[in-house]
Amino acid sequence: MGLGRTYGVGLTGLEGRMVEVEADIGQSLPAFILLGLPDASLNESRDRVKSAAKNSGLPLSRRKITVNLMPADVHKRGSGFDLAIVMAALCAAGDVRPTGRTVFLAELGLDGRLRPLHGVLPAVMAAVAAGFPDIAVAAANAAEAALVPSSRVHGFSSLAAVAEAFGADPENLVFPPEDAPVSDPAAQDGAEAGPEPDLADIAGQSEARFALEVAAAGAHHLLMTGPPGAGKTMLAERLPGLLPDLADTAAMEVTAIHSLGWRGRPCSGLVRRPPFESPHHTATAAAVIGGGSGIPRPGAASRAHRGVLFLDEAPEYEPRVLDALRQPLESGTLVLHRAAGTAVYPARFQLVLAANPCPCGLASGKGTECTCSAQQRRRYFSRLSGPLLDRVDLQLAIRRVSLLDFTEAGKAEPTAAVARRVHQARSSQRERLLPLGCETNAEVSGQVLRGPLHPGSRSTAALDRALDRQTLTARGYDRVLRVAWTVADLSGHVCPDADDIGQALAFRQQAGAA
User: Fold this and answer.
1) Environment class of residue 376 by beta-carbon count within 10 Å: exposed (0-12), middle (13-18) or buried (19+)?
2) How far apart are the C-alpha atoms of 31 and 28, rounded to whole Å?
3) Which of 136, 309, 464, 492 has the least CB density, counted as fewest CB within 10 Å?
């Protein structure tokens, strides 16, 4: 009888912290004591561990077992420590040899099966960064864990298989029957994603299509205002198809968030396509921004990281939900403070807002069919606050679709053709902005835009007048310059000229916002 030691990982948001698991077998009456500030689900691991060990042919000692999770002053949460706890107890009893610096990440079933966890990817990333490359996980999580470079992942289907790998007597081991079903807590919707919708499906809307191309090329935020049925939702749904595949670093960030997101099955590869999130307008702040009991989980804004967050019927959202987006629009991160701790999630997304011009939606054009009063119209659109709209680069008025648009449907450029121009524009940006530490025009600071990248006073004359007349804020001035650089990149210009800046200024003022 002695002391056993293994390692696990505790997650706070996407940040992982190494946890040392110690198990000591004393000489007193039978007991199982778990120390180290465990939460309710972790406290229940005592019964899971005892049943799993017994049903695997490795019953735990009948003496007092004390398990300590260090550091002892940090709260530990979740069932992901089950395998680390039982291996520490078996090591203390001498049933398995010392496990060295192997990290164990799995939940135990009562029959000894290893069940997959959510958040394995960020946990493995934290372990490898801390110098613990050897990882033991459930077989269903092995492909996801192996995505981390320099990791040495070992997938096991049962506790008996893990114990055998660490020197347990194979004659005593009991393996669960292979035909028994394995409950997968991550398997909620296994539907495969269909093909991305194509821009060629949209009738007319040439100006809106160009605005969408500009938004994709420069990673700009977009507001579309227009009557119902004009194609606002169809345009927004086609934006992700214009975006290039994610680079390795961005793909790892997105996959780590999706690993925590309780959606779909465990990841088998990096998420390479930009995500698209479209929460319903009844969604709460916790659903959009993130939240929940204990450590807050990522919301739609973080799940849309490096992709698109689409808010259809934007004025119908609660104002506090919309205004809560102002922080991530500026910083690209979400810091969620709760009594149980603070979680930091990346949230660098493209915001796309769609809105009707009034409650009945018929105030566009001549507006002769609109039944709303002027006060109702003002009150409806004022739900989108000025500070939020000031952070939206492109503000576009969408017109109704005409009969001529329908007759010419199918002649428009497909997504693939527009995506090639977007890719070329992004390449130009990357070459210009790499020395500045940026990738897209939307990330360039105002200091750089008004300094090394200023197009010159002759080109910015109209923009300077708008600022001088206070029809444009200082933040809006910088955002027009960002859009102008994107228009120039799409046109093949070395620097924005007066026409590029005029186009960018027109995009910003169309929806009637400053």
Assistant:
1) middle
2) 8
3) 492
DSSP-derived pairing of the beta strands 15-25 and 64-70: antiparallel
Alpha carbons 263 and 285: distance in angstroms, whole number:
19
Distance in angstroms (rounded) separating the CA atoms of residues 418 and 244: 11
Let me know if 475 is exposed, middle or buried by CB neighbors in 10 A (0-12, 13-18, 19+): middle
CA distance 52 to 88: 14
Which of the 8 DSSP states describes residue 154?
E
Residues of the chain above pLDDT 70, percent? 91
User: What is the SS3 assignment for 201?
Assistant: helix
pLDDT at 87: 96
Q: What is the pTM of this model?
A: 0.87
Judged by DSSP in three states, 241 sits in helix
SS3 91: helix
Q: Is 295 in contact with 77 (CB distance < 8 Å)?
A: yes
> Which of 99, 127, 139, 118 minimizes the C-alpha distance to 6?
99
Q: Take residue 217 and report the two structure tokens written for it.
A: 């090329």
**E-state strands within 212-340:** 222-225, 276-277, 290-291, 297-298, 308-311, 333-338
12-58 residue pLDDT tens: 888 999 999 999 998 888 889 999 988 888 888 999 999 999 999 99
Paired with 270 in beta bridges are: none
**Residue found by looking up tokens 């007349």 in the block:** 469
Q: How many whole angstroms separate alpha carbon 390 and alpha carbon 318?
A: 18
CA–CA–CA angle 392, 395, 397 (5° rounding): 160
Q: How many helices (H) and strands (E) does the chain have?
A: 22, 18
DSSP 99: -
Contact 45, 35 (CB under 8 A): no
Say if residues 28 and 139 touch (Cβ distance below 8 Å): no
**Residues 405, 341: Cα–Cα separation, whole Å:** 54
Q: What percent of the chain has pLDDT over 90?
A: 60
Nearest Cα to Cα of residue 296 among 267, 357, 263, 339: 339
Distance CA 126, CA 135 (A): 11
Burial label for 313, CB within 10 Å (0-12, 13-18, 19+), is middle
Q: What is the pLDDT of residues 262-277, one digit of tens each?
A: 555 677 788 999 999 9
Q: How far is CA 468 from the centre of its chain?
A: 39
Q: How far apart are CA 261 and CA 321, in angstroms?
A: 20
Average pLDDT over residues 281-287: 92
Q: Cβ(115)–Cβ(55) under 8 Å? A: no
